[in-house]
Amino acid sequence: MAVADASVPTASSSCFPTHAPLVPPVVLDGSSSHYASPPSSPSSSRILDLPPSSQPAPQAVADALKVVHDLEVDEAIDVQHELQTMQSVMHHIDLALRGETPHQIAQRETREAARQERERQRLERQLAQHEQHVQRLASRLAKQPSNVLP
Q: Where is the stretch described as Disordered (predicted)?
């Protein structure tokens, strides 16, 4: 009669586990029946479950929040800087594709600045002329007799 080797599983041995599975069963709606749902209200957060002696000091919490806020601001600045850098690079690529050299670009910018300055001076002269005209009309009206009005 042959003796069964203990290292070889047989139909009557542990081929089919009799203990509960390690992975919780999953219900058809996707939720697990083994775990409780997470707390839904902020008042049931973990910090409130701590005894008062082990809760962090309000100043420590404020400092931590400030550090997080500073990191978020730094990240936003970094993103803005990257965006500006990328726009500048794209602008230079566009100019290069059009065949403009840095010297040509500088000349065009100088011409544009000179044109804007001439336009500003023209508008200032025009404004001065209008102000003189208004002053002349005001003095003329002041010299007229007041019997013209009803």
A: 1-58, 98-150
